[in-house]
Design a protein that fits this description.
Helices cover about 45% and strands about 25% of the residues. The protein has 6 helices and 8 strands, in the order ββαββαααββαββα. The strands form 2 sheets. The protein has a 6-stranded antiparallel sheet, with helices on both faces. Strands 2-6 form a two-stranded antiparallel sheet.
Length: about 160
Amino acid sequence: MTSFISTYENRVDRKGRVSVPAQFRDRLADFGCRELVAYPSPRQKSIESLPKTVFDRLMQQRTDRNVEEGEFERVLFGDPKDSVVETMMGLATPLLIDNDGRVLLPSHLLQHAEIDGRATFIGRGNRIQIWSPENHGRQLESALETLRDRLDAEGGE
């Protein structure tokens, strides 16, 4: 399994174009794609993204499971109990990587993540998050503090 790891910061131009880090582009090639599916994080002021091939596989598995279970209404009309997935599908945006290694981040994603001028790409294993450097700095400090507290509570040194 190919993983996205590490943190990179790149400039965002006036049109919303930003270079996807070369290391992430290499991992995407392992997935056989040059496209991400991005959506606003429902938990944080960041952008979540998956390789399009992974996203497509997840959606196909969801459809196949519904068909196998005879849940044709879910396939045709969606599932009211699955409103989070349904909502996120409507907010998702394909991001095609151009020949220069850039993607165009739409304004609604830039606004959600409060990105203006610079973007921080974070590898999260199977996905990539995109943050404003300031929001990522605050999130990282909070996550490290939570980790230190947890380790202290467990008796770690």
